[in-house]
Specification:
By secondary structure, the chain is mainly α. The chain has a single domain (about 50-80, about 100-190, about 195-255), classed as Recoverin, domain 1. About 55% of the residues lie in helices and about 0% in strands. Helix 5 (about 120-130) crosses helix 7 (about 155-170) and helix 8 (about 180-190) packs across helix 9. It is globular, with a radius of gyration of 33 Å. The N and C termini lie far apart (about 75 Å). The relative contact order is 0.10.
Length: about 260
């Protein structure tokens, strides 16, 4: 036993001396700076407080509605990205859709707001939807999406009237002309069997509507004409095609925003 204890003590002394020698030979450990606290990153499925505050000032939605709209927006964008066609062999991948594209926009107008209207009208609604600096090009970012929905669902009479006028003003020159009325009404009317000249019937209808809308009788409809005519006859608001959801569909959609998604 004594021999064993002496042997173990010798081993410990040897190991301790080896460790001390190694520590003397080893370079001093590098001085590490204290780690900076990581910046807080807002999750992509949640609207930042800064964006929330800005949107509350420019639209008519409350905080809960904006949060629900953002969830819906992210779902629509994600679905569109997933449905995008894959890249062809040897070709670079297609650009990722960052926003609501035109096909998704059309589906929402049809299926959510029941805007079963002519494709020409849907095209015009898409073109006139405010896109900020993009000037009406590219996908809809969240702010533009919310501003447009605010007009459609909670807009004042003036906002809704301006929206419809801009849709009907095909060349965006500030007037609705006979030619523009003809294009809009021709797209919305079904050709009747036996009509030898269906365009003649459209032209007659254009003259009839023009008499109602052209208050100053200069042969075209200005925003002022349009406003005055609608004040006299509210049904003329969507004279050339449906541009707005019905009150029933708007109310149902707003009610759905109150349910947490």
């Amino acid at each position: 036993m004594a021999a064993t204890a002496i042997a173990l003590r010798g081993v410990r002394l040897f190991l301790n001396r080896s460790k001390e020698a190694a520590e003397k030979r080893a370079p001093p450990p590098p001085v590490t700076k204290p780690r900076a606290k990581p910046k807080k990153v807002t999750p992509s499925n949640k609207l930042s407080q800064k964006s929330m505050d800005a949107l509350l000032k420019i639209c008519k939605f409350n905080k809960n509605e904006l949060e629900s709209l953002y969830t819906m927006y992210r779902q629509l964008v994600t679905a569109a990205q997933a449905a995008a066609p894959p890249a062809l062999s040897g070709q670079p991948p297609p650009a990722k859709i960052e926003g609501i594209d035109q096909n998704t926009f059309r589906d929402v107008m049809h299926n959510t707001f029941d805007l079963v209207t002519e494709e020409a009208i849907l095209e015009r609604i898409w073109i006139t939807w405010e896109r900020g600096a993009a000037g009406g090009e590219g996908a809809l970012k969240f702010e533009s999406w919310v501003r447009g929905l605010s007009v459609l669902l909670k807009g004042t009479e003036e906002e809704r009237r301006n929206h419809c006028f801009n849709v009907y003003d095909l060349n965006a020159d500030g007037y609705i002309t006979r030619d523009e009325m003809f294009i809009l009404l021709k797209n919305s009317l079904l050709k009747q069997p036996g009509d030898e000249d269906p365009d003649e019937g459209v032209r007659d209808l254009v003259e009839l509507v023009l008499k109602k809308l052209d208050i100053d009788k200069d042969g075209r409809v200005s925003p002022e004409d349009y406003r005055e005519a609608i004040e006299q006859e509210p049904l003329l608001l969507e004279a050339f095609g449906q541009c707005l959801p019905t009150k029933r569909h708007a109310a149902a959609f707003l009610k759905s925003l109150c349910i947490k998604q």
